Amino acid sequence: MRHFLKSNVKITARTLIFAFLSAAIQLINGQSVPFTYFYRVYFRDKGNYTVSDFNLNELVSERAIKRRAKAGILATDYRDLPVFRGYIDSIKASGFTLHCSSKWMNTALFKTSSDVDLSKIKSFPFVSEVKVVKNLGGKGSKISKADPLAMATDLPAYDQQITMVNGYALHNSGYNGTGVLIAVLDAGFIYSDKISSLQGVRTRKGIKSTYDFVNGNEYVYNYHWHGTAVLSILGGKEEGKLEGSAPSADYVLLRTEDDNSEFPCEEDYWGAGAEYADSVGADIISSSLGYYRFDDPSMSYKITDLNGNTSFITRIADIAASKGILVVNSAGNERGNDWGKIIFPADGDSVLAIGAVDANRTIAAFSSAGPSADGRIKPNISAMGVNDVLQTSPSSMGRSSGTSFSCPVISGMSACLLEAVPKAVNYDIIKALQSSADRYNSPDSLYGYGIPDMGKALSLLQDIYFRIPENEVVAAPNPFTGSFELIFRNTSSNITVEIFTATGKIVFQKLYSGHAGRTIEINDMQRMPQGIYFIRIKSENGTSTIKVIKLSE
Fold first, then answer.
1. Among 102, 150, 184, 311, which one has the highest count of C-beta atoms within 10 angstroms of its own C-beta?
2. How far is 318 from 310, CA to CA, in rounded Å?
3. What are φ and ψ of residue 341, in 5° steps?
4. Hey, what CATH topology would domain 1-465 get?
5. Cα 133 from Cα 262, distance rounded (Å)
6. DSSP per residue over 66-109, as a string?
7. Is residue 492 within 8 Å of 520, Cβ to Cβ?
8. 535: phi then psi, degrees, rounded to nearest 5
9. Would you list the domain boundaries of the chain?
């Protein structure tokens, strides 16, 4: 069963990205007969392509290059080379239509309107394998991943999905995901261009690009509510009604799920989406999707395949992580059926798989169980996924349940952590979230490491990347011209900052309540004249006074 549960980004060489990189979909002009058969073709090599044949910005964007550099990863490697065009053209000449390709897996997805003899393409010396990944089989009788799960009668507070993970510790400290790019892979985003809670995202043009890998066009607002629900949990904000986990992050909306049927070709769509996300420099992939059984049972996976190395989608997810992307995926809603286990790609060893708990922090009856087939802790962590507040209609809020909705809680909070600690890489975030969780010392196959605490996770990350001062608090840079940071030796949840001129006149005063981490950024001195200022800091750790010097810009 499946599991759910135009933008302004500058993308260098966009034409190349859509023309022959793996995220490209070939459009069909004048085709009226539906394509009902899909074939995944594996190639032996990439022809005569070499990395030196391409400029960096022909393969990935500048943002992607910076993300990889931060993680100590080569700007490009063999996997980043597109599938060899000559191979694709040879198969197209045999009567097949290209749908999409995967540079990472060195595969291409072809389609036909009727069943055909595959012997010719199997005989090509550059082809290593051909798999039928969709046939004429109709939609199965299984419950759709889009169907809402049963809800309890006692409804938690509208923002409990945030408070449960101590998310306000980040939001109150000014970390809302600013500057972080999240790629949302889902079944469609109907009304995301209209719903009220996303008005702030739209106003600041925070939706940077969109693409539909099922139909091959850039419009994603006419299919399915599920991605809209996920996006509202991530970026939505409406006072007293909905508190998104990352309301200031930027988003790439990618439709990779076809809810009309269930076939392995959807793994290819997901892979094309993941490669697109990488190419434009996404920091996080948030995926409330997953697979294990298909409408043709002969194509389905087995539980023993949950080893992180077997399924097509899991292998791609792990490659995405190797490129420096934090891949966050729903664990699945399968514990109430005969499968019971996590779904693919949640089994990936580099994928952060998210289970679901209710408002009382009790694991949901539907939340898929681990461990992976090779004994690893899965899910990794859990978050609220029962009666989460979300929005799918233009003007009203709703609630729904599923690991589909615990996933974006964690994806968004991870964006806030990346904003707070920009040097952190994806593996740092995973480790900090697990280490901060309430079952870290006794993980199990239902909760994983448990429910994380974002304040603790932030402190763990700052301990790695920030130099802890010998004094109780220091200001840096000092002297400063515009803004500066206060860096604390010890954390405190309530901090009062007062700034005085040399003559004792107070020019700034603020209480930072519910603060987390070791830093506070001060941006309010930019219009003040140059000179000497004194800062008094009060917290439960005591009172400190430091001197700073402002220079003219």
1. 184
2. 11
3. -100, 175
4. Rossmann fold (3.40.50)
5. 10
6. HHHHHTT--S--GGGSPPPHHHHHHHHTTT-EEEEEETTTTEEE
7. no
8. -115, 125
9. 1-465, 473-550
If you search the block for the tokens 């964007």, which residue do you land on?
A: 61
* Tokens of residue 211, six digits: 């693409």
- CA–CA distances in Å: residue 328 to residues 281, 283, 314: 16, 11, 12
Structure tokens at 393: 């209609």
Cα–Cα nearest to 101, from 82, 125, 129: 82
Question: Which helix or strand (DSSP H or E) is residue 19 part of?
Answer: helix 14-19
Residues near 403 by beta carbon (within 8 Å), at least 6 away in sequence? 3, 5, 288, 330, 331, 332, 333, 354, 355, 356, 364, 366, 367, 368, 379, 385
The amino acid at residue 368 is: S
Strands 97-102, 237-238: pairing is unpaired
DSSP E strand stretches across 283-409: 284-287, 326-330, 352-357, 381-384, 388-391, 397-400
Kindly provide the b/e burial profile for residues 234-261, where b requires at least 16 CB atoms within 10 angstroms of the residue's own CB: bbbbbeeebbbbbbbbbbbbbbbbbbeb
Q: How much is the pTM?
A: 0.89
Q: How far apart, in whole angstroms, are the C-alpha atoms of residue 410 and residue 244? A: 11
List, in order, residues 6 or more apart from 2 with CB less than 8 Å away: 142, 144, 145, 257, 259, 262, 266, 289, 290, 291
Tell me which CATH code domain 473-550 carries.
Answer: 2.60.40.3080
Nearest CA-CA partner of 380 in 266, 457, 270: 457
What pLDDT tens digit does each residue of the chain (553 aa) get?
455 443 333 333 333 344 334 334 444 344 445 889 999 999 999 999 998 888 888 888 999 999 999 999 988 899 999 999 999 999 999 999 999 999 999 999 999 999 999 999 999 999 999 999 999 875 554 555 555 555 555 689 999 999 999 999 999 888 999 999 999 999 999 999 999 999 999 999 999 999 999 999 999 999 899 999 999 999 999 999 999 999 999 999 999 999 999 999 999 999 999 999 999 999 999 999 999 999 999 999 999 999 999 999 999 999 999 999 999 999 999 999 999 999 999 999 999 999 999 999 999 999 999 999 999 999 999 999 999 999 999 988 999 999 999 999 999 999 999 999 999 999 999 999 999 999 999 999 999 999 999 999 999 999 898 888 888 899 999 999 988 989 998 888 889 999 999 999 999 999 998 888 888 889 888 889 999 999 999 998 899 999 999 998 7
Contact between 100 and 270 (Cβ < 8 Å) = no
C-beta separation of 190 from 393 below 8 A: no
Q: How far apart are CA 232 and CA 220, in angstroms?
A: 15
